[in-house]
Write a structure and sequence with these properties.
Length: about 170
């Protein structure tokens, strides 16, 4: 899969690609001391349940710049829902992937290979990030690489349906 990075690893800001502008827009400034644990972006040509492209967290050693396309291998998916006071919770899954070029994470084949400490830290990051933004966020379950590939295929099909309806 290809992933367009929006927010680099260790960034204290959330960037979001704005297709109408063809540029990245500052979306949020994280609370002091909070940073993204890995590069965060989206799978182009997809449409997730929340209407945005499918979110992807890419494990690799060093950050890359916003807009960089990173070939990556999906290893799992965090099946999540988020909401706020104005609307009820909706699905907003996070695919976890390993950059093809990563020597450190190359042996990671499944979400289970990450271990309980790293998985808990990733889930805590997303939960705290959303909570501090005034939203609820809940990880419903963790699923492996096959489920991640299915989520990608579903979101690609949803994007094709949306494009043909437009």
């Amino acid at each position: 899969m290809q992933v367009v990075i929006e927010t680099p690893k260790h960034a204290p800001t959330k960037l979001k690609f704005d297709p109408k502008l063809g540029a990245f827009r500052l979306s949020k400034i994280l609370p002091v001391g909070m940073v993204f644990p890995f590069d965060f972006g989206f799978a182009p040509g997809t449409k997730a349940a929340d209407g945005d492209p499918l979110d992807v967290l890419v494990l690799m050693e060093a950050p890359v710049y916003p807009g960089c396309v990173v070939p990556a291998r999906p290893i799992g998916v965090l099946v999540c829902e988020q909401g706020d006071a104005r609307r009820r919770a909706e699905r907003n899954d996070r695919v976890l992937a390993v950059a093809d070029a990563s020597p450190t994470y190359r042996a990671i084949r499944s979400i289970d290979d990450l271990g309980p400490t790293l998985l808990a830290a990733l889930e805590t990051f997303f939960t705290d990030y959303q909570r501090l933004s005034g939203r609820t966020f809940r990880v419903l379950r963790r699923q492996g690489a096959a489920a991640a590939r299915q989520a990608i295929k579903r979101s690609q099909a949803a994007a094709r349906r949306a494009d043909s309806a437009a």
